[in-house]
Amino acid sequence: MKLPPQLNFLHSARQPILRTTCTSFNKTIVLTGATSGIGYVTALAFAKLGAQLILVARNQEKADKVAQECLQLGANVKVVIADLSLLAQVHMCAQTIL
């Protein structure tokens, strides 16, 4: 089926999902939104691979709970509390991470 040019991005959505057989991940991952939804699932997936995680969140209590779960799965975890909708906190977050 031919799509109009504005919808060409849908072709990539129809591609099969690639599965990884990676058993370890020696990288540092910065995750925002890791206290719920896809960010949470992503944090746990990388934790299982032993990645170093930096979780950026607005809520300290929720972030600490996720960090504890990730630690139990074998990750090295750092939590940075910031509201990334505020430019000053974006700068603070970047300085903390770097």
Q: Can you describe this structure?
A:
- This protein is of the alpha/beta class and 98 residues long.
- It is built from 4 helices and 3 strands; from the N terminus they run αβαβαβα.
- The protein has helices at residues 10-13, 37-48, 60-72, 87-97; strands at residues 28-32, 52-57, 76-81.
- A 3-stranded parallel sheet has the order 1-2-3, with helices on both faces.
- Helix 2 (37-48) runs parallel beside helix 3.
Task: Classify the helix fraction into a percent range.
Answer: 40-55%
Question: Order of strands in the sheet with the most strands?
Answer: 1-2-3
Largest sheet: 3 strands, parallel
Strand content: 15-25%
Which structural category fits the helices and strands? alpha/beta
Shape: globular
Q: What oligomerization state is this entry in?
A: single chain
Instruction: Write the element-wise H/E pattern from the N-terminal end onward.
Output: HEHEHEH
Count the helices. How many? 4
Cα gyration radius (Å): 17 Å
Q: N- to C-terminal separation?
A: 47 Å
Mean pLDDT: 86
In total, the number of strands is: 3
